Amino acid sequence: MSPFTLDVIVRASALLAVAAVADLGLRRRASAATRHLVWTLAIGALLALPVAAFVLPQWTVPIPIARRAAPHVASTGTAPSNAVVAPGASARAVPVPCLEDGGRCEPDTAPAAASAPPRLTPRAALTALYFVYAAGLVLLLMRLAVEPLALRRLTRASREVNDAGWRRLCDAAAAQLHVSRTVRLLRSERDVMPLTFGTAAPTIVLPASADEWGDDRRRAVLLHELAHVARRDCLVQRIAAFACAFYWPHPGVWWAARRLRTERELACDDRVLASGAAARDYAGHLLDIAHTFRAAPAPATALGMARARQLERRLLAILDEARNRTALGPVRGSFLVAVAIAVFLPMAGVRAALMPIDPASPAPLPGSGGQEQEFTGTWDVHLLRESGRVQLNVRRGRAMYGTTLALADVERVAGTTLAAASTVHFPIRREAGTFTIDGTCRNSACAGTYVFEPSATFGAELAKRGIGRPTPQDQFHLAIADIGIAYLDTLTAAGYAMPDLPTLVNAAKHGVDAAYVRDMGALGYRLGTVDALIRLRDHGVDPEYVRGMASHGLAKLSADEIVRARDHGVDPNYVAGLAALGFRGLGLDALVAARDHGVDPEYIRGMQGLGHKLTIDEFTRMRDHGVDPEYVRAMAQLGYNGIPADSLIRLRDHGVDPSYVRRLQQRGLSNLSVDEIIRRRDRGDDR
To answer: What SS3 state is found at 315?
Structure first.
């Protein structure tokens, strides 16, 4: 998938805006080297942005857009808002897909259009845009791949400079700029602009007429080109070229690359002047070189010394005596990098999503008190480890609701597979209302925004059953859990008393949906009231937990017993861990007591490794008295090895710890029995 998507555009634009503000604030006070680092960090952040989007946690920023209103259709049924019927065409009932997890969906049909002129669909338009983007990306990457060939031809048409005068000046300039790497010095067979290229093997190319220069000009040229090497400008130039290729439709990236080039040359000029060159003389050399070699060809990836586009600003900066020419030190550079990371991380986690809104607000529903309510928020869905299932999270304000769904149901409603989708727009129809979903997908994970529209007829259906008329807020909660008329039928079939409206909404909020009712009923938990089911759910008792406990011999526990086991941390993993150590068939009381006293598989393994083969009750008693593997091991190192469990408990109960025994041994009392140690401890013999 292309990295050039809406959320990346928003984040990239925000990063560039922050860099531009920083650049503006540093324009007069900071040096060119500082501003160059700001733009370098911004360009690097742009390339890291698509990668960070996969790694960092994300939060969605909705962007509201007006939803196109559909024409009113007069019919005996209710047409969805996106249905269009041509005048005079006969309507054909088309079932609207609905997403369900065990319940039934509200009946809904839409008249199909008889015929419509072909038009460009949003998906086709998006595909065309991606094709255009990919074509531009390929062309720019091909250009980057071809440019090294031009540099190679230039190198073959040049000769190594072995002149003693040139080499002496080059070595002196390199030492002055702290350039420790080997730099090749070549002279071209033709007059080219003095230039530098190469990251791993830096190379300076001089024009054929360079031997006619005086020492001042030679030194100025070498200092400028070696400044590029010292600052690793060739690497930064390469990174900027890749950023321009990947973000080529974004004009801000090209502008950032131009600002990077400008500050790079100004920073190198500052280095030359800081090395002792006279400003007017250096400006004269620069002007003369730019005039002499203005028509000389040079590869785009090479760093030419005096390109005409930047010349005027550079000359003014060179002659400005009040200008800050300070080189960027490690402390200030590290500070800027830290600030850039602090700015980048939250921006990389932002995801923009379009939130369709109706141009006209609907009339308030009955039961809403005449107040209009807006039900919008964000959602995300991702694959679970369980094959064929996904986790759907819905957020509204600070509240979050989650549920698991079948992947096939989600893809059926979305009309595409999550692995292939880039954008999604589809309805999820519940009996209590409809969620209109909009969002983007990447690697089978999707996120975006939704609008919920409560059903205008659902409240009347509940009122007919004596439950009461729900508010739109109630319908939102009921729709999240897919609780409707089908849910009530499921309760009746399972022998449950008909709940009132608050209980029904409470069941929705706590995840007691139809699937939970059926699964718990199949496991023998038909509790008669929904409140009893809510209690189980609140304590974390789900069908998976019940089946896991039953597989380890704890089947047919009562509702109170299963809640007690869950509350005390007795889960299938704990029971299995004890069974692997030989403790099988334990009753619930023994398991709860052991768990409450901290007797876990790790504790038992440690004690068994020290020779204590005990029952679960004996391990519980030892743990209760503070006898753990560390205590036993420390006492064994002091010569008290193989002590029975009862003796260890007595020692611990009387406050005999390894430090006390060690003090006694330092006094020469090394062979005392357990009883003698306890008597001394009871007498307070601590000396």
So the answer is: helix
pLDDT digit string, tens, across residues 341-395:
888 777 776 665 555 554 444 444 444 444 445 688 898 888 887 778 888 888 8
Separation of alpha carbons 259 and 238, rounded Å = 15
Provide the Cα torsion 256, 259, 261, 266; round to 10°: -160
Q: Which class for 54: exposed (0-12), middle (13-18), buried (19 or more C-beta within 10 A)?
A: exposed
- Six-digit token string for 660: 């006390």
- Is residue 353 within 8 A of residue 7, CB to CB? The reply is yes
For the cut 80, the answer to whether the pLDDT of residue 242 exceeds it is yes
Question: Which residue type, as a one-letter code, is found at position 330?
Answer: P
Share of the chain above pLDDT 70, in %: 84
**What is the arithmetic mean of pLDDT over 401-422?**
84
From 563, 519, 508, 310, select the one nearest 394 (Cα to Cα): 508
Structure tokens at 672: 């005392």
Beta strands 376-383 and 389-396, pairing class: antiparallel
What is the predicted pLDDT for the residue at 76?
37
User: Counting beta carbons within 10 angstroms of the beta carbon of residue 140, is it exposed (0 to 12), middle (13 to 18) or buried (19 or more)?
Assistant: middle
- Given a cut of 90, whether residue 536 has pLDDT beyond it is yes
pLDDT at 115 over 90: no
Return the C-alpha torsion angle 584, 588, 594, 599, nearest 10. 50
The neighbour count for residue 104, using CB atoms within 10 Å, is: 16
Q: How far is CA 272 from CA 64, 176, 283, 327, 581, in A?
A: 53, 10, 11, 11, 75
Confidence of residue 152 (pLDDT cuts 50, 70, 90): confident
Distance CA 381, CA 353 (A): 14
Measured distance CA(144)–CA(534) in Å, rounded: 63
CA 604 from chain centre, in angstroms, equals: 40
Full set of structural domains in the chain with CATH: 1-67+94-109+334-482 (no CATH), 126-326 (3.30.2010.10)
| Tokens linked to 686 | 């601590």
Coil, strand or helix: which one is 89? coil
Distance CA 599, CA 296 (A): 83
Sign of CA dihedral 78, 80, 86, 91: negative
Residue of 522 and 122 predicted with greater confidence: 522
CB contact set of 555 (below 8 Å; sequence gap of 6+): 549
* DSSP letter (8 states) at residue 67: P
State percent of the chain over pLDDT 90: 39
Tokens representing 100 are: 């369900």
Cβ–Cβ < 8 Å for 273, 279: yes
Q: Considering only CA atoms, which of 580, 650, 678, 620 is closest in space to residue 612? A: 620
